[in-house]
Design goal:
With 341 residues, this protein is of the alpha/beta class. The protein folds into 2 domains: 2-149, Rossmann fold (3-Layer(aba) Sandwich); 169-338, 3-Layer(aba) Sandwich (Rossmann fold). 30% of the residues lie in helices and 15% in strands. The chain has a 6-stranded parallel beta sheet, sandwiched between helices. A 6-stranded parallel beta sheet has the order 9-8-7-10-11-12, with helices on both faces. The longest helix is centred in the first third of the chain and has 17 residues, at 11-27.
């Protein structure tokens, strides 16, 4: 059995997809699995796939490869050389992945068609979003359909937390309880105002060890000396820092999903992000701040998974995020910490 998996997407999406690959490898050790993913996220899969089983490319480069015929022809040849019996195409993949899967030679092609996919007959099994609306559940259901199409009925009812132990190394810490703040995210549209994060960090540093994760969009914000800055240089360093936290505070982002998968407690300031991207595991350990009183929240689902670039609420742009004051977020953090032994 040769299985080809398409997952060119960012960190958080790969974190919630990781249990699929780990479970497939554990249950079907004789299957030959090839994963196509992004370079920064490839390390997530290192514990279950060898370097030869992982092919990487930046997401935007791969998605636009069809615009460069010779480059796309190279992808086509690499895919055909794998002689896949089946393809698993995550719901968030674009036309390039669907086109390659369609012409891969695989008789089974499991995935999900959303609005921007225009490749006819790219899938033999189109899996719709499960009733709970959770992305992790959707990935899991696709894997179930794939496994059943291969003649296997035994598949667990729900996805377990991914095993990230291979990425965690001891991280130095003080005796104080540690709060890790990750104020960035890939989209500016999903970020709580940076100055508010800084205000909360300053307040929490009076009673806790606070570590601020530097990113290009967050590294220049003024912070008091009591707030420690950290610039993880690798996925392993970031994972280890998050694993050492007593509390995570941030936007709905890849590191938030990483912290959730590690079992860390957290507070997330959620704006336009769909409910399906809320922390999936250990839900009792998390506080999700979402202003559900707004008619447009969340706006992500109604836009067919397209990249959100503007706010539909023109009378009060990004009211879903600006609703949350430093007082409210600080209180949420202290309440969550008080629930932790």
């Amino acid at each position: 059995m040769n299985l080809l998996i398409f997952k060119f997407v960012n960190l958080g999406d790969n974190v919630v997809f990781l249990p699929v690959v780990q479970t497939l490898r554990a249950r079907f050790p004789n299957w030959r699995i090839t994963l196509l993913t992004t370079p920064q996220e490839a390390g997530l899969y290192a514990s279950v796939l060898t370097p030869r089983e992982i092919i990487t490319c930046p997401q935007l480069r791969f998605n636009s490869s069809w615009k460069r015929p010779w480059e796309f022809a190279t992808w086509w040849a690499r895919v055909r050389l794998k002689h896949p019996n089946a393809c698993l195409i995550s719901f968030d993949q674009g036309n390039a992945a669907h086109l390659l899967a369609r012409h891969s030679g695989a008789n089974v092609r499991v995935g999900a068609r959303i609005a921007h996919v225009r490749i006819n007959s790219s899938l033999t099994h189109d899996v719709r979003m499960p009733a709970d609306g959770r992305v992790a559940s959707w990935h899991w259901e696709m894997a179930r359909v794939l496994v059943q199409s291969m003649g296997h009925e035994d598949w667990p009812a729900s996805p377990p937390p991914p095993d990230l132990s291979g990425l965690v190394i001891p991280f130095p810490r003080t005796r104080a309880r540690r709060i890790v703040i990750h104020a960035g995210s890939n989209q500016a549209f999903t970020r709580w105002p940076l100055e508010r994060f800084a205000e909360v960090a300053t307040r929490l540093a009076s009673t806790h060890e606070v570590v601020w994760v530097n990113r290009p969009e967050t590294s220049t914000v003024p912070l008091p000396a009591a707030v420690h800055r950290s610039t993880p240089k690798s996925l392993q360093e970031l994972t280890s820092l998050l694993a050492s936290a007593d509390l995570f505070l941030g936007n709905n982002s890849g590191p938030m999903h990483l912290a959730n998968a590690l079992g860390v407690r957290g507070v997330v300031v959620s704006g336009p992000t769909a409910h399906g991207w809320d922390p999936f595991w250990y839900r009792e350990r998390w506080t999700v701040l979402r202003n559900s009183s707004l008619f447009c929240v969340p706006c992500e689902w109604t836009r067919q998974f397209r990249l959100i670039r503007d706010c539909a609420l023109t009378t009060a742009p990004l009211a879903c995020l600006h609703h949350w004051t430093p007082d409210i977020v600080e209180a949420a953090c202290r309440t969550r910490l008080a629930l932790t032994p």
